[in-house]
Amino acid sequence: MFKGQPKGLYALALANTGERFGYYTMLAIFLLYLQAKFGFSAAVAGQIYAIFLAVVYFMPVVGGWLADRIGYGKCVVTGVSVMFLGYCCLSVPISAFSARALSLCMMFLALLLIAAGTGLFKGNLQVMVGNLYDDPKYSAKRDSAFSLFYMAINLGSMFAPTAAKALTNWKMGAAGLFYKSDAPAIAHQILSGDMANAATMQSYADAMPGAAGMDLAAFSQYYIENLSTAYNLGFAVACVSLIFSIAVYFACRTWFKHADINAKQQAAANANVVELTPQQTKERIVALGFVFAVVIFFWMAFHQNGSSLTYFARDYTQDFVTGPLKIGFNIWALTLLAASVYTLFSVFQSETRKGKTISGIITLILWGGAYALFAGMGDKVSILPSDFQQFNPFFVVALTPVSMAIFSALAKKGKEPSAPKKIGLGMFVAAVGYLVMLLASSGQPAPSELNGAVSPDPVVPAYLISTYLVLTFAELLLSPMGISFVSKVAPPKYKGLMMGLWFASTAVGNYLSSIPSMLWNNVPLWVNWTILMGLCIISGLVMFSMLKKLEAATN
Q1: Three-class SS string for 417-442?
Q2: Residues 481, 2: Cα–Cα separation, whole Å
Q3: Residue 199 CB: number of other CB atoms within 10 A?
Q4: Domain 7-266+276-319+383-550 is found in CATH 1.20.1730.10
């Protein structure tokens, strides 16, 4: 799995892990922050969230175009610096009541800086990874390399929801408060004069030591201010993670310095530059453009994790878990289980008996540690809506070696699917994920009927966990393979731009992800899930209809 990969892969992957940890810590709480602090409706918060994601993933087009001219490394370092300023702005606790205009301005400035910095950083770092595999010595390992790189991305994002939750609980506990999923919405209702759920808020106030002597309006404002400050602390984590990333980047720069070169720099150095005919260039760009168009609908479906799936976690899913599923809400137990997958594979892949024995012993120790953590949990564990977002990265980290082993076995038999075929299969698998949500939503009231409350009969967390598992299978088929496809097929003079356009397709998909949020309070639950499922199926069919042309462009 790791054997024969260049050292530069690990340095660039680790630098990306740190950056992604900060980004996903921020993203895990961002939509909840918008609603808690500013009282935005689900539609408005979802729209801001979707626009931000769209801009984040569109900016790599600009970053890639710029890097094709001035160099990838320069853009990466500049991007980290700009992102750092953005997260600093987002971390400043400004009152949403006494300084609402200033608070909103700071938030939008922060989002703009984060998006611009990500555009300079993300795509260009991945181009450098791809450049490592232009060397014939490593070219056969390109797909497996991007699977490992993608795993590293998710290793960072796996811990993000836990970091956000820990800071939120610490801050709320210090203020004598505890988190309730419906409290922010009810607090804003009370402050606007709507007392429909006043009794529920009063019961929260009576149970919280920090609310002693406050009337209901004062308590509501106190609750919102402290919860908002807790979210600010979560955003500050991203600043620290970026310091880690840039430290790794510079410390290990000699491992990948030779990959920090674009076509213009190669030509100036009289190095060998691959020249394509105008027809070849056109065919490759057309093939890439088609793939970009299809994956828009995958990202539209996949990025419901921060919007409609989070709303479902908050309003329709039990806020506690019992039984074996408890282990999924202990990040350290998940970490041990994920690590055990790699040590278990090492048992079979080690070339010496000693290596197999050591790997087997470590695997048993990891399983024992995970069980001990599980046994130490209470019979009933409280959970937050953001907790569900740790499942997707956990599944990516744990299932990457399984995916690589399957495709490696198929490759040895000459039956490994091409990258375009994997992308098409990924679309069909994503549709199955929303079939699970259809089953979960059966018999549930429409969001418009809840009026800010939660479902009287919430479903067990297993439904959402299953959905994230299925969507992860789809993601492993589509995302790392898509990045690998772009790095291989992109004309040398346009590598940065083409990688940027891959993210631009993600940007469009992210923006379209706001549609279920806009429909949330206007349609039954099943309508949203059916729309997403149908789009994935249609996209998969279209992808397979163009398969021969796409595979020809790859060759």
Answers
A1: CCHHHHHHHHHHHHHHHHHHHHHHCC
A2: 18
A3: 10
A4: no
% of residues, the chain, pLDDT over 90: 29
How far apart are the C-alpha atoms of 403 and 426, rounded to whole Å? Answer: 13
Domain boundaries, the chain: 7-266+276-319+383-550, 324-382
Q: 3-state DSSP call for residue 372?
A: helix
CA angle 11, 15, 19 (to 5 degrees): 165
For residue 543, CA distances in Å to 418, 422, 482, 529 come to 12, 10, 13, 21
Each residue of 221-253: pLDDT tens digit?
A: 888 888 888 888 888 888 889 999 999 999 999
| CA gap 63, 263 in Å, rounded | 16
Identify which of 22, 483, 538 has the alpha carbon closest to the alpha carbon of residue 246.
22
Mean pLDDT of 183-196: 85
Instruction: State the CB neighbour count (10 A cutoff) for residue 324.
Output: 9
Residues 301, 319: Cα–Cα separation, whole Å: 24
In angstroms, the Cα distances linking 420 to 61, 400, 480, 485 are 22, 19, 12, 8
Report the distance separating Cα 308 and Cα 471, nearest Å. Answer: 14
**Contact indicator for 306, 30 with CB cutoff of 8 Å:** yes
Question: Around Cβ 286, how many Cβ atoms within 10 Å?
Answer: 12
Where do we find the tokens 């002693």? 212
pLDDT tens readout for residues 38-82: 888 877 887 888 788 778 888 998 998 898 888 889 999 999 999
**DSSP strand E in 172-321: where?**
320-321
Burial-class residue 418 by CB neighbours within 10 Å (0-12, 13-18, 19+): middle
Q: Which two tokens stand for residue 305?
A: 């994790």
